[in-house]
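Per your request, structure below.
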């Protein structure tokens, strides 16, 4: 005779399940909803661009994705065309041809816990010789932990907001900002009416008070997407725009843009 199984939920877990049901998440794991991201903007020397990307895909990503609370990792690249379509504020780590690469780890649970665990993991990997790529040939321009604020889905799809971080896309347009919170969320909600936008995820920094970011998941030419979005939805007067930058999604072990970057006028070394 089967033994009865009873699931006892806390008040917070009951609330989570109730909210998930209201947002159309029944049938999904209510305890595994995306909660935020760990974000890194990076560079490497042009001479080792293939080696660095192979190391990142083969050795760096796997132990980080294995951490509790990390759901997946996506990496992105800015070619010279995408750099040319970028807008930044003065002194930005994304300016002057920097931050050609970004990594986004999508999280579930408390984003701060995953961020702290990843920092601890780095020290363990260094101690065991697993961070062997030369430090002077790569650089982290910016690292942060963001928590989810809102998500908006393309009307033609049957997606719900919790699906947005996993939607298919060929690139993203990042928009970091301060101020204009309500206006920016309203803008994000309107962007999904554009044919090439499949979803927008709005987040706030856990480390820098008042900093917010929109990740726009796009299909097609990311540089053209960034330009069309600016024309359709200009910056409102209440918002301080810090970064508006398009990136192409990287398919692991496929780097067809290497020579395009290497032969451009982008900085040749991380020291520049």
């Amino acid at each position: 005779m089967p033994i009865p199984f009873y699931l006892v939920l806390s008040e917070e877990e009951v609330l989570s399940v109730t909210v998930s049901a209201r947002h159309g998440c029944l049938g999904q794991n209510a305890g595994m909803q995306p909660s935020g991201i760990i974000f890194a903007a990076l560079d490497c020397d042009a001479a080792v661009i293939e080696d660095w990307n192979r190391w990142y895909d083969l050795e760096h990503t796997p132990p980080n994705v294995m951490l509790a609370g990390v759901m997946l990792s996506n990496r992105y690249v800015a070619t010279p065309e995408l750099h040319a379509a970028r807008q930044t504020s003065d002194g930005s780590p994304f300016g002057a041809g920097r931050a050609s690469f970004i990594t986004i780890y999508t999280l579930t649970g408390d984003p701060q816990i995953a961020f702290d665990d990843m920092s601890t993991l780095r020290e363990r990997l260094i101690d065991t010789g697993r961070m062997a790529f030369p430090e002077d040939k790569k650089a982290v321009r910016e690292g942060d932990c963001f928590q989810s604020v809102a998500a908006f889905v393309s009307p033609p799809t049957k997606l719900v907001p919790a699906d947005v971080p996993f939607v298919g896309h060929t690139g993203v347009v990042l928009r970091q900002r301060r101020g204009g919170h309500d206006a920016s969320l309203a803008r994000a909600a309107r962007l999904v009416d554009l044919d090439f936008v499949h979803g927008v995820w709005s987040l706030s920094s856990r480390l820098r008070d008042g900093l917010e970011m929109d990740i726009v998941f796009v299909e097609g030419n990311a540089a053209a997407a960034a330009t069309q979005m600016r024309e359709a939805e200009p910056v409102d007067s209440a918002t301080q725009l810090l970064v508006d930058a398009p990136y192409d999604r990287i398919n692991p072990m496929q780097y067809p843009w290497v020579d395009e970057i290497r032969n451009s006028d982008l900085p040749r070394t991380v020291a520049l």
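Residues 33-252 form a domain with the Alpha-Beta Plaits fold (CATH 3.30.70.100).

Regards,
D.
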